[in-house]
Structure formats: structure tokens, C-alpha cells
Amino acid sequence: MLWLYCICTTAVKNARLGSFAVYLLGVVVRVMKASPFFMLFVYRALEKHGDAALVLRMIRQRYGSMLDARATTLWENWQLFYKSATGGVKFQSASHAWAAMPLVFAAEQLLGINIAEAGFTKVIIAPKLFDLDYAEGTVVTPGGEYGVAVIRESGGIRVKATVPAGCEAWIGGELHREGTHHVLLPDAK
User: Fold this and answer.
1) Domains present along the chain, CATH in parentheses
2) For tag attachment on the chain, is the N or C end more exposed, with fewer CB atoms within 10 Å?
3) Which residues of the chain have pLDDT under 50?
């Protein structure tokens, strides 16, 4: 499984967001565009390879059709309606929580909230805005609600973080206890 993971992540990293081919033992193996379900695995692989910015581009491209359709749920596949092999029109399910990878990406990358101790009693807040200028959200955890607002400004990235009671957060190398904290971080753009 590990060797396939390495081959696939390398192929995904070098791909142009569409389908692509991988050469495995001299044989061309066609790799299809990952389904919404599998996008979490693609995200983890790209993150491991230091290419999380590609994930944001993939979210915009792939989940865009759901937004364009004004969907209020996440679809099982990228297209809600498709033609079957016999030419008929088929319908896919339009409510799949397992397709919610963009929420995981937003919490872990854009807001930068990552677990440091069990139960989220201690987290590391290290947001990455990529090409965005602003991100804001709340992540509900067993330890309480962490709120983060991040804005790009001259001189860096301004972070406003709310840490719940009984919890702690590492922000910019400093430990912050419960309450609201304002920290200016260097812009890693």
C-alpha cells in the first residue's frame, strides 16, 4: 500500500488537475480524477509533499460546480447528473458528508488549527492563506470552540484567535491560554 501511495502522490503532484497517466512497471495505468470521497486522501498526500496550495486550486475547480448549482449539500460525484453507457440520464446522490474535505482543509490550512494534545486541549494555530487575503471560522472540538480570523496586511498575517476555557494554543511560537489573542505572523506567501 505504501508504494502505491508514493506513486499516486507523485503522479497527483505532477498532474494538471485532470486525469493523468502513471507508468507502473513499464505499463501505462490510467488514473481517474479522485471522487469527492477520495479527495481527503489526495489532500493528505499533497500536504505531505508540501503542495497544499494545489489542494486549494482543486477545491475551486472541482467543488465549483456544486457552488454554481447553489447546492446546499455535497454530492457523491462531481456531476449530479450523468449519461450512462446506454445513453440514459442517471442521477447521483446529492448528500454525502464524506465529500467534506474542503472543511478539513479550511480548518487545518486556512485557519491553521491543528491538534497538539488529545481532545484539542492544546492546539497549534499556524494559518496559511495561500493566495487569499482573509479567512475566518470556528472549529468545534471536544475541548471547546476555537475561533480564528486571519487577514493579510503589510508586514505579515494578523491572527485573531479565541482559545476556549481550559485550553491552550501555540501561535507564532508562543503559548496562549484561554481568551482572545492578537498575533502578527510573518507572511509565508
Assistant:
1) 1-77+96-110 (no CATH), 111-189 (2.60.420.10)
2) N
3) 1-21, 23
